[in-house]
Structures are given as structure tokens and as C-alpha cells.
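Researcher: Final request for today, and then I'll write up notes for the group meeting. The sequence and the SMILES for pyridoxal-5'-phosphate follow.
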Amino acid sequence: MNSIIPPYTWPHIDDSLRSAVDRQLGVSLSDRDGRGVIGGFEAEFAQFVGSRYAIAFSSGTAALHAMCVAAGLGPDDEIIAPAYTFFATATPFAYEGVKVVFADADGFGNLDPADLPNCLTEHTKAVIVTHMWGNPCDMTAISTFCRENGLMLLEDCSHAHFASWAGQRVGTFGAMAVFSTNQKPITTGEGGVLVTDDDRLRELALLHGHYNKRCFQEIDQSAPHYQYALTGMGLKSRASTLGAAIGLDQLGKAELIESRRREVLAAYIEALDGNPVVSPALVDPERGQSGLYVVGLRYHQEAATETLHEFVQRLDRQRADFDVPGSTNVIANEPLFHRSSRQQPWTSVPEVRPATYPGAEAFIRSFFKTPLWGYPGDEAAVAHHVAALVNTTKLVAR
Ligand SMILES: Cc1ncc(COP(=O)(O)O)c(C=O)c1O
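Model: Predicted protein-pyridoxal-5'-phosphate complex:
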């Protein structure tokens, strides 16, 4: 980085965050029920999303695992998932033996509703979407498809804490949704939150990761699953109290984080207006609002003399933090989704015949991103990044 520009880190560690953690140190390092800081964080998070319930987990991956089990999905079932996403959207389903059928991506890297009919079989039970890099999926088309085919709709909102589609907050379209809170605009350090409006799904998800005291207190005693209250379903993936204290501090600043991030995004939109080489990768604002995870950018190779990778290297030499995503890629050909045995998959490693996903591959070829920053004092960093981007496009424009 430039000597005056610190590298991007998140969350912004200020006095209020330090004192929230310090206060929690004096209260509890582990909550066994929902009456302390974990319950407080969950109530605030549910309100933030606009859903009835939120349950905090140790990670977004653990929350997705609970979602799979609460949805009742198992080895005879299929779920349609995006071919392009961070792998944890789909890996918990593969772990449970659910067959994951992958749908191609649209121009924003999101699950393309036009590909859903090609993925549908008599075993399909659910669809999961990821709102990639904060751009909301076309939830009108996807919700309609799910309703017409009797499928459960699930959302991975890990990139989309502040996103909405047609005026409706993401995370409220389906039966359940998960938000990773690992280094996301609302963060708990490590963690994940499952949200739902459904009492039964909430209790089933609670059993998958929380047990004993909390389940005895919160599960309906007349429900058949109450008998599992002591043991849960065999796993523990509770959130940490210090993470919840951080999360509460962040939720208290949600309006500030959102307004600053929207300002930064607007600065990129303005600076790139009419730029032939790079444009913001944003859904039509009349249809959807960005979740403000990153600034997603599209590189127009036909208008440039260099490749995207060369362009990003040029930015890197100016100590500007732009990157082409790495571990978020086409996940459909990973062996985990093709193993023949759940117990000893290494005894016969599957020969994966790579399927192609032209929509996802086209998106990947042109997409890159940069942090949105979003706190008092970030002005110099944002200005440096915007200027570096615009000036570099001038150098490579045809
Ligand atoms: C789209 C998506 N889903 C799920 C996850 C998993 O969340 P976690 O890292 O909290 O387990 C991530 C993590 O970044 C993600 O980007």
C-alpha cells in the first residue's frame, strides 16, 4: 500500500468495538442459552433482516449445514445450486449426501433462472441461491419457479447483508436463509446466522448445533423433536460470546456502514461513467440494491490492450487492492460433489467429467473486485483506489 494508505481490514476497530469486547469479557465467554449476548445479537440480527427468528452459529458453513438438515434433505434428494459460488453454499448438502445439481450463472454470476428447468428432476426438493458479490438474484423468477414446482427456496446471503430485490430484503424470500458473518459488512469475526419465519424450522435448526439447556428452554415440549433436546442431533456449533458482542456493536453501526458504503459505491459509479474499459457490475438499481460486500467490476477486454490479469497487476504495482476472485469459482466439478461413498470417498476417487457452465465462465473472465471500505477516515484510501482504477483504464484503453 501507499505509505499513507493502510491496507483494507474489516471491521474497523474503534473505541466502541474495543469496549464492547472488553465489557463482554467481564460477563461471559460462553453462553449455554439464549438469554445473554448471543440471544441479544440474534434478536437484533432478525430485526436487521426483517425475519422473525435468527440463530447464531460458529460459521456460515455450520449455519448452512443446519439449514440442510432442518430442510429435511438427505441422500434421496436433489438440490439445485449455483455452479458459480463460494463452495460452502453447497458443500454441507454434499456432506449430508444430498445430490447437488448445478445451474449456470447469469451476467452477474448469479444463478440463472432460465437454467432451472434443465436442472429439475423428480428428486428435486429445493433450490439454493447465492446473491453473488452483493448483487441480488432475480428473485421474482426464482420464487415463481419454486412455487410452481413445489420446491423449498433457500438463500445464501453471505455476500448480501444490505441487499434487496424489488424492495424486499434478501433473506426473506425463502423458507430459510444464511448470512456468513466472517469478515462481511456485518461481522462477528467468525460466525454465521440462520434466519427464518417458521417456528418448526427454527427449532430443527436449533437442534443442529445447539443442545441441552437452550433446546430444553426453547423447543416446544409437545413437538416430536423435543426428545432430542438434551443431545441435539449430535453436533455443537454455537457462536462465541465475544463474536456476538462484536456483532451487536456492528449492528448498532449498520446505518453508518450502509450509508458510507453506498457513498463509496456511488463514487465508483460516477468515476466510471462512460468508461469503455471498466464498468460497475451492478444489477439495475430499479430492480435490486447491492448488498455492499465489495465493489464488483466488469473488465471489457475488447476495449483494452491488456488482459484482465495484466490490468490487475498494474493496479497492484500502485498498491491498489483489486483482485480476481480465486476460491470463488465454478465449484460444480469438485470431487466432493461426485463421490460415490460418503464414508470412504478416498477409496474410489470419482473421475469427474467436467461439465461446462458458459454463463459462469463468461462472468469469471471479466469480473474483478475491490473493497468498499466504509468507515470514518477511509476517504484517502477510497480516493486512491478510484484514481488508480480510472488512470489505469486510460493507459490500457484501445
Ligand atoms: C457465499 C458464501 N457462502 C458461505 C460462506 C461460508 O461462510 P463461513 O466462512 O462463515 O463459514 C461464505 C464465506 O465467505 C460465502 O462467501
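Model: The pocket of pyridoxal-5'-phosphate is lined by residues 59-61, 85-86, 88-89, 130, 156, 158-159, 180, 182, 192 (CB under 6 Å). The longest helix spans residues 254-271.
Researcher: Thanks, that's everything.
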